[in-house]
């Protein structure tokens, strides 16, 4: 994650085995979702700085839309 004001990297999330193709922040700002060429869709807990869930996907994502159910 980058601080847009300072242009500094403030957090690094590791887990994909290939290049990340897309990232989306949850509406509540608590999670990131990333998709990559390694076939994984990862959900990251920002506060805990860890991987919360992984889902394998076989097809290409054209659009990543995120809805959090409370």
Write up this protein.
The chain is mainly β. The protein has one domain (2-56). The chain contains no helices and 6 strands. The protein has strands at residues 2-3, 8-9, 20-25, 31-36, 40-45, 50-56. The strands form 2 sheets. It has a 4-stranded antiparallel sheet with strand order 3-4-5-6, with no helix packed on it. A hairpin with a 4-residue loop joins strand 5 and strand 6. It is globular and about 35 Å long. 4% of the residues are buried. The model has no long low-confidence stretch (mean pLDDT 81).
What is this entry, summarized?
This protein is mainly β.
Percentage of residues in DSSP E strands: 35-45%
SSE pattern, N- to C-terminal: EEEEEE
What is the CA-atom radius of gyration, in angstroms? 12 Å
**Ranges with pLDDT <50 over ≥5 residues?**
none
Q: What is the mean predicted local confidence, pLDDT?
A: 81
The helix/strand class is mainly beta
Number of strands: 6
- Straight-line N-to-C gap: 25 Å
Binned, the helix content reads under 10%
Q: Name the strands of the widest sheet in spatial order.
A: 3-4-5-6
Q: Let me know the largest β-sheet.
A: 4 strands, antiparallel
Number of domains: 1
Number of helices: 0
Q: How does the overall form come out from the CA principal axes?
A: globular
